[in-house]
Amino acid sequence: MTPEAPVPETDLKQQLAERFREVNGDHPMTGADDLYVSTQFVALEELCAVHGRDADAVRRLMLGRRLPLPGYLRSDGAEMVPADLFALADEAGGVDLLEAWFTAHWADRAAGKAEWDAYLSGQYVCLRSVTPATIRRKDHLTAAIDAAVNEPEAGSARWSGRLHALVDELDALEPAFTAYDRLRFGGPTSRDTCVDAVRARFPRP
Q1: Torsion sign across C-alpha atoms 88, 93, 95, 100
Q2: Nearest Cα to Cα of residue 71 among 142, 8, 126
Q3: Residue 101 to residue 162: CA distance in whole angstroms
């Protein structure tokens, strides 16, 4: 049996771009989007050079659903990823152990699998650092904020202090986002609805 020829890096990069657009849609990146992404993320090839990894091999892992897709594709085609892209796999003991380690943070297996799929999509750009702990904390905070704004004691000093403590903690977890995110997510981000809108509606005393 003849072994398969290796896929050229240019083809892998194209495949990864196509997979990215399948997940996120095909939306243009503006100059402001590019600037935001360049300050918040790092180009995959640059990160691989720093860590002594082969970018081609990392693209294969992304396409094979073993590492998350890039968070963004910059206008120049650069695959933009978080600076700690490899941190979770290292903590888990390697890429081969990452999925089991990751999903074990949820008692409900179906919930863990759903979060793993979301993690692999690369769309957890809503967190400065993506870990099972920060994912779970964000979910808790957004649910708590949504519930708080409808409580009977809304507007009281005690309630306001509790609400703004939740909002401040979520603010610390989340980056600013960019206009591109509102296109691919089809509407406002969690920062829009749970931080900015809540602070505007219920100003701090």
Answers
A1: negative
A2: 126
A3: 33
8 A C-beta contact, residue 167 and residue 194: yes
Beta-sheet strands, E only, within the chain: 42-43, 72-73, 79-81
For the chain, the domains span 8-125, 127-205
Spatial neighbors of 95 by CB under 8 A, at least 6 apart, are 61, 66, 67, 89
Q: Say whether pLDDT at 7 is over 90.
A: no
What's the pLDDT band for 69 if we cut at 50, 70, 90?
very high
Q: Which tokens belong to 149?
A: 């704004």
Chain segment 160-187, per-residue pLDDT in tens: 999 999 999 999 999 999 999 999 999 9
Q: What is the Cα–Cα distance from 82 to 95, expressed in whole angstroms?
A: 17
Cα distances (angstroms) measured from residue 106 to each of 111, 135, 139, 143, 173? 7, 11, 13, 17, 20
68 or 153: whose pLDDT is higher?
68
**Do the beta carbons of residue 195 and residue 144 sit within 8 Å?**
no
**For residues 80-94, average pLDDT:** 96
**What element of type H or E holds 136?**
helix 132-148
